Amino acid sequence: MPALIGIALSLAVAVLGRRAGFDRDRAFYATITIVVASYYVLFAVVGGSTPVLVVETMVMALFVAAAVVGFRSGAWLIAGALAAHGVFDAVHGQLLTNPGVPAWWPAFCGAYDLGAAVWLAALLRHDMRRRTRLSASCAPAR
Predict the structure, then answer these.
(1) Under a CB-based contact definition with an 8 Å cutoff, are residues 37 and 85 in contact?
(2) What is the number of other CB atoms lying within 10 angstroms of the CB of residue 97?
(3) What is the DSSP string of 58-118?
(4) Left (φ > 0), alpha (ψ -120 to 50) or beta: where does 109 sit?
(5) Predicted TM-score (pTM) above 0.90
(6) CB atoms < 10 A from the CB of 109, how many?
(7) Contact 85, 41 (CB under 8 A)
(8) What is the structure's pLDDT at 56?
(9) What is the DSSP code string of 21-60?
(10) Res 115 pLDDT > 90
(11) What is the pLDDT of residues 59-93, one digit of tens each?
(12) d(CA 38, CA 54)
């Protein structure tokens, strides 16, 4: 059930972002990437473990860096970072014991991340096709 809710919520946020025009700003999905990466840091604080807090902060820094670089260079990197965070959610428990993480969180967050990554990739692919068609239609006739 947490995975279904994660997917549904990622799609709801994506549709809201599209309808409200939030996703016209390149920062929208970069910000989402930073936010989803921050939750494990929050859970480390809740769990009261300073060593885990340090590790989770370092991992978050990697996703923040990917979001910033993707914002500046290309949103495909952001889509990849979201997908990578979904994979990270799947293996997080094997890599690190964070006592503040709810049992349902990895499935929920992983599904959310992958849903957002797929949506963003679809938007980027659609935009690439549209630009290709526009440039072809603007080419001089031979």
Answers:
(1) yes
(2) 11
(3) HHHHHHHHHHHHHHHH-HHHHHHHHHHHHHHHHHHHHH---TTS-TTHHHHHHHHHHHHHH
(4) alpha
(5) no
(6) 26
(7) no
(8) 98
(9) TGGGSTHHHHHHHHHHHHHHHHHHHHHT-HHHHHHHHHHH
(10) yes
(11) 999 999 999 999 999 999 999 999 999 999 999 99
(12) 12
| Contact call for residues 109 and 82 (beta carbons, < 8 A) | no
Read off the amino acid at residue 110. G
Which tokens go with 116? 């957002």
**At residue 74, what are phi and psi to the nearest 5 degrees?**
170, 135
Sign of CA dihedral 122, 124, 127, 133: negative
Give me the amino acid identity at 80: G
Q: Which of 13, 33, 49 is nearest to 84 (CA)?
A: 33
> Within 13 Å and on the Cβ side, how many CA atoms surround 99?
7
Q: Which residue has the tokens 């690439």?
A: 128
C-alpha 65: how far from chain center: 13
**Quick one: DSSP state of residue 140?**
P
* 40 contacts: CB under 8 Å, gap ≥ 6: 56, 59, 60, 92, 98, 101
CA 30 to chain centre: 7
